[in-house]
Design goal:
Elements (H helix, E strand, L loop, with lengths): L2 H7 L4 E6 L3 H13 L4 E6 L2 H10 L4 E4 L8 H11 L5 E5 L4 H10 L3 E4 L6 H38 L3 E5 L5 E4 L1 H7 L3 H4 L4 H6 L9 H8 L3 E7 L2 E11 L5 E10 L1 H23 L16 E2 L5 E2 L1 H8 L10 H7 L7 H5 L1
Parallel strand pairs: 1-2, 1-3, 3-4, 4-5
Antiparallel strand pairs: 6-7, 6-10, 8-9, 9-10, 11-12
Length: 344
Amino acid sequence: MDQAEMKERTSEALRILILEDVPADAEMIERELKNNGTAFTLNCVYKKDDFLKQLEAFSPDIILSDYSMPQFNGMEALELVKALYSSIPFIIVTGSISEATAVECMKAGADDYVLKEGLKHIGPAVEGALEKKRLKEEKEKAEQIVRQSAWEWQTIFDSVNDAISLINMEGKILQCNKAMASLLGKTAHEIIGSTCWELVHITSEPIEGCSFIRMRETHQRETMRFASGDRMLQVTVDPVLGEDGDLVRMVHIISDITALNRAEEQQKNLICELQNALAKVKKLSGFLPICASCKKIRDDKGYWNQIENYIQDHSEADFSHGLCPECAENLYPGLKLSFKDIDS
């Protein structure tokens, strides 16, 4: 840690709790911390009851403890701290300690140990223990963020109704959602590691027209439809590209399109019915050669037909015979006929 970092670190006074039964030793520790440039407030105790009270009331940032004391030793204090406040750094400060005892302290959870004859190292030891705590907290925070993100992703993944799986270049399933497990009637543990064709098509090799095989060649979305019992399913395979643009994974989606397929079939049938109906509709168009005198019409074969016969043959129209008022007057002068008589 450079000087700038140390000043930033010590800009706020550390709360240091010392467990020491020799006042002169506590004073030497305090003096060395000041020489190191550490800003701190300090409380010193040597009894267990006082130590427990200060843990709660003083809420120390770090604890410096003598290893051997008559009534309450450093290992006992360390066990209490790890049980009650495991995040508080703990440093053993002792007159003498064997290598085996030092290893024992570190295994029990001590962050460091400093010999009283080498108190010049107490400042760096405190900084190192606090840095270790900071890094641990950052790691735990990052891991929590990762766990939360993974949980959110899995929740969204499982909320999708389509059966989705992530597969590798060999077609083996690496991960799947709940809909995939439900579709196949298997657990995720049973699905992962198998190929999509083994589970979906019950074959040892990819089927003809397999979307996976085609997408592996084109690196583009590929789809196919197939019947599974009374259901119609659609498989969509999308590429997952790496940073260099190479194909590294594939997203395999199975959608139940039974209702959609049924609607499409109904639409096709309706269109076919409409086309057939239109084919039966007769209509007259173009120029019709008609006699100016008898009003007969010449058909496309050259024959002359009564106009009503021609229209009946070339349309859906029909005729009822009658007389218009003008013709009735010409044919039956002076005879009064009603429209009902004329039309009959």
